[in-house]
Amino acid sequence: MENQGQNTPGLEKLFARLEEVTADMEKSDITLEESFALYNEGMQLLKQCNETIDAVEKKVQVLDENGEVHEF
Question: Is 40 contained in some domain?
Answer without folding.
Answer: yes
